[in-house]
Specification:
Strand content: 5-15%
Order of helices and strands: HHHEHEHEHEHEHEHEHHHH
Strand order of the largest sheet: 3-2-4-1-5-6-7
Distance between the termini: 45 Å
Helix content: 40-55%
Shape: globular
CATH topology of the largest domain: Rossmann fold
Radius of gyration: 22 Å
Bound molecules: guanosine-5'-triphosphate, magnesium ion
CATH superfamily of the largest domain: P-loop containing nucleotide triphosphate hydrolases
Oligomer: single chain
Number of strands: 7
Length: 319
């Protein structure tokens, strides 16, 4: 017989990795037990510091995150070994199964006190952010000090992931040409710390200079944005990056900004969940698809405009 949610949560609180993994699977699968899990763990959520990492494919995010995890595990604050959890979100198509496996393999060589979870961004009703957030909550209750969330930043996903994090680190690389474009396009919106990884490659210094000039043009650039150069494969710059993140957290806590940030994240989370629920109600119900088809025909026959159709459908739900 399979374990009940209560048994699994008891296991989670004992930091049992197997129970934790099972709970994460339930959250990932958006199982009916999710509501129960959330209320069972809520008192233990909020202690972990959540660091989001985003950037173009292949920038070295996984390598960097693994190096940081090692750093924090070995260099635990207050003499105690820190517990680090990693969530790698793969927002690309199912064809990247190989890359996902690559991540798992590359990271399993880490310390056993590092909990790693890869998840694919497929068919999430509530969107990737809601699921990631739920998984992070479980890992928070597990007792993580550091929660590192990696996602490829190529579109909207990085904005959503930023809403799950206490701080967002954007990872760029020299020599590819797309880094500066991405930064201008949207990554800048979420960047709080920038990493120039693969600094062993030509063009690292000029990339730093370019980033500095872009950062300087931000409308609210009252605080300078930290830019850290790293060579993740050689463990270079990892100590400095860890220190930068720690200082960022200290600043956030002492200025009351962490609380503000978490409130803002929570607002976004509630909105996302409500919207997902409404989408399910409206389009997931019986006959919804047929009604949509019929509406299309009506519009094509010029009997209704798309605007009128949307009004009619919305009015069915808002009374
Ligand atoms: N030269 C050099 N190579 C690096 C560095 N960091 C990572 N790499 C290599 O870059 C490749 C991609 O690294 P990953 O860590 O998988 O990059 P990623 O950003 O996680 O990739 P995706 O998750 O697929 O987007 C690997 O072959 C790494 O060994 C670095 O600092 N210098
Ligand atoms: Mg990766």
């Amino acid at each position: 017989m399979s374990d009940t949610v209560d048994e699994l949560v008891a296991g989670l609180f004992r930091s049992d990795a197997r129970a934790t993994a099972r709970l994460i699977t339930l959250v990932e699968d958006e199982a009916p037990e999710v509501a129960r899990i959330q209320s069972a763990i809520r008192d233990r959520v909020g202690r972990a510091y959540r660091v989001g990492f985003t950037g173009p494919p292949g920038a070295g995010k996984s390598t960097l995150v693994a190096a940081l995890a090692k750093h924090w595990v070995n260099d635990g604050e207050s003499g105690r070994v820190a517990r680090v959890s990693i969530v790698a979100v793969d927002p690309t198509s199912p064809f990247t199964g190989g890359a996902l496996l690559g991540d798992r393999v590359r990271m399993t060589s880490l310390d056993p006190s590092v909990f790693i979870r890869s998840m694919a961004n497929r068919g999430r009703l509530g969107g990737i952010a809601a699921t990631t957030d739920g998984v992070c909550d479980v890992l928070d209750a597990y007792g993580s000090d550091w929660l590192l969330v990696e996602t490829v930043g190529v579109g909207q996903s990085e904005v959503e992931i930023a809403e799950c994090a206490d701080v967002t680190v954007v990872v760029l690389t020299p020599g590819t040409g797309d880094s500066v474009q991405l930064l201008k396009a949207g990554l800048m919106e979420v960047a709080e710390i920038v990493v120039v990884n693969k600094a062993d490659r030509p063009g690292a210094d000029s990339l730093v200079a370019e980033i500095q000039s872009i950062v300087g043009m931000r409308p609210h650039s009252d605080v300078p944005m930290p830019i850290v150069s790293t060579v993740a494969t050689e463990n270079k710059g990892i100590d400095e990056l860890a220190k930068t993140i720690e200082e960022y957290r200290t600043q956030q806590v002492s200025r009351g900004l962490l609380e503000t940030r978490r409130k803002r994240n929570l607002r976004a989370k509630i909105q996302r969940l409500v919207e997902a629920r409404l989408r399910r109600e409206i389009w997931g119900g019986k006959g919804a698809s047929e009604e949509l088809d019929a509406t299309v025909e009506c519009i094509l026959r010029k009997e209704e405009t798309p605007w009128d159709a949307s009004e009619r459908i919305v009015k069915k739900w808002i009374r």
